[in-house]
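2 proteins. here.
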Amino acid sequence: MDSRRTVLMQKYEIGRLLGQGNFAKVYYARNLKTNQAVAIKMIDKEKVMRVGLMEQIKREISVMRLVRHPYVVHLYEVMASKSKIYFVMEYAKGGELFNKVAKGRLKEEMARKYFHQLILAVDYCHSRGVYHRDLKPENLLLDENENLKVSDFGLSALVESKRQDGLLHTTCGTPAYVAPEVIGRKGYDGAKADIWSCGVILFVLVAGYLPFHDTNLMEMYRKISRADYRCPSWFSFELKKLLARILDPDPNTRITIPKIKETSWYLKDCNTEGEDKKNKSVISDDSSGASTSSGSGSREGGMRESMSLPNLNAFDIISLSTGFDLSRLFEERESQREVRFTSRQPAPTIISKLEDLAARLRLRVKKKDNGLFKLAGTKEGRKGVVELDAEIFEVAPEFYLVEMKKTSGDTLEYKKMMKEDIRPALKDIVWAWQGDHHYQLEHEKPQENSHEEMPHQETNSVT
């Protein structure tokens, strides 16, 4: 990168390189509007496609919704250009936990603090169907208050080498933290594999070295498969007992996170009730949606005067980027019953238009919830009444995504209704139909810089 000021998407000033992997580089950056420090992970789209990671991306998008937790690095937004995907993330000022351990092993009290935070973060993400699969000290960061920040949840497969079989192969990474069933390459439970990795991390924090280590890689694998390790003399009895249950080579009998939270070592000097309440409050807050818009409320049966619209997180937003359209990744069966469009009209205008549409097509509004319409036809078709959901998501202020999905009835009748009635009726509020590749953005003409790494003024931001 040269010494000139480099600005991404007219929004972020790019600074020093923080780290890199096989498919991505991470830079320090600054938000030009708010002056907030962020980290930007730049993923090479061509490399990701070449090794067949599209299925992994699709899978992560489908499960990674509203993941926000005090001990997980937060993703603020996702942008894309023709050649790169940009993840704008929380900047962890304290650096890697690995650097702290490299200076010397931690006392059990300090290790317990970080282990508590790690378990709470992992438990929260598992509850959302998200598994890390590559937990290691390098992925554990610290904020300015020395609290843990787990990075790369849902993204680890994008920066680690994978082969064409789609399985995670760790020989090119850090195999010492990997569970025995992962080494076997026969498929594995992501949650149980993460728990094993948490155990290895705990051992490293207190011992200052790895439980499984050998200059011969195959011998190391054998030690991992047999859970062949020895605890140093300074480990407490309670810690040894906990590690024996975590580093169980049989995933079926390996201790679970709820059981970990009940162990004497975990409970020592631990305000678990307060931590769990904190954990649950985060889930509750995120599930409810954050933004509020005023509805029309001008007619009988109209929407409430105010309603909370769900927010889309970074993984959802990837699919909105004109530079990275994922619509072709989904199965034909899905594409036949789902359509999406974006709109820059205010939420009340979108709501009013949908209500007009329902009245014009004589659709019954069966249920209206936060941003969700459930619409049903009045005529019986070949396969019953056509019913569909129309849900509004707030992507950013003054930028919305509307998803319409057939929930019952004949697909051909639904597609005909969509083509002849719904699309024409909504043209005044639609900014772009997702998947319409012929659609040309009015104000965006992507310019890709010839340099591989850093575009200077790309304009394909989705926000």
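next one coming up
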Amino acid sequence: MADVKAEIKPEIKLDPADSPTKLAEIDEFEDDTDLIFPTPEMQGQGAWLVKVSRDMWKAWNDIYQSQPDDAEVEVGRLRVYHAKPGDDPNSQKVELLLNDGLEQQKALPSVYNLEMKENSYQNTVVFSEKDLDRHRAKQIGHTRNLTAGKPSGIPGKSDRYGPRKPGSYRTAIPKQTILAPPIINEAVAKPAEDKTSLDFFKRQYDAAMSQGRKATILPYVDKGFHPGAASAGFTFGSITSRPGKGFKKKEPKEKNVRMPEDKLLDALQQCFRQYPYWSMSALRGHLRQPDVWIKEVLDKIAVLVRSGDFTGNYKLNDNTARLLNISDLELKEEAAPIKSEVESDQGTGDEMGDDDEDLGDFEDVKMEGGA
């Protein structure tokens, strides 16, 4: 059997077997700049998480923006008072003294009392992020500062389809995450009552009051002279409103006071002793009680007629009519008349008869006509 010889195609490149990868070329200990942990010394000291006011936050943000990167700025100092034995650790007195040398903090109160919330680690992690130095955000639509030889004639996606919508995808820039030391103490900063805090609140109050509209009183205008009185067509009637138009006071609606249920039951029984059928309007005008209260008590002794000549009127149920002996009264089959509110307020006219009885003190005068 003839020997078979393997042929290697010339386009395939073979790795030399006698040139292994050198260990020096492997970067096993490459620096990782994406995540920075605090030093052991910083971890032992711990950090404070303090809730500050909006004005202090703005001042500290201005200080941060005005300083170079990685610059340490002393914004203040903590004054911690020794706690007495047996006291609550959260009630320990701590003050924050701001650095008056910083221009951004001169308008703020100089002393803040820290109200302690936690004095031990509570799984609270604080970190910051920033873009890596070797990755910069590209300016969209700017091609004037491109390096020589880089093509710039092809428009970008934003130039072709408009600006990017909020929340849509954009190229991610690698971030550098820096972890802060463990949060050992959590507190809330409140201004101490001193001269600097009172001056600060006074400036805030004056600024808030100056933003609203103000009325300017001119000293050279006669306050007793009505505006527009100097015109030729001025009359006293032009400054007075016409009566009954726009200023008519609405008459208050009289509210009926509810009478006790037992008295209302007696009044309803007296009504049905006069007429066998009563409508809600007639009962309202006769009893002067709210409709809801009348109906609530009326349902206990009467029923609503659903058909016939007296549809919509109430009549006594059989049990109540039997107890009151309504059948012995021999009432006519008719409904009670509806009394209007005017008649109920002013009377029915029977009061005039009482006045006629008092005319006996007058003498009768005989009138004779002259010839």
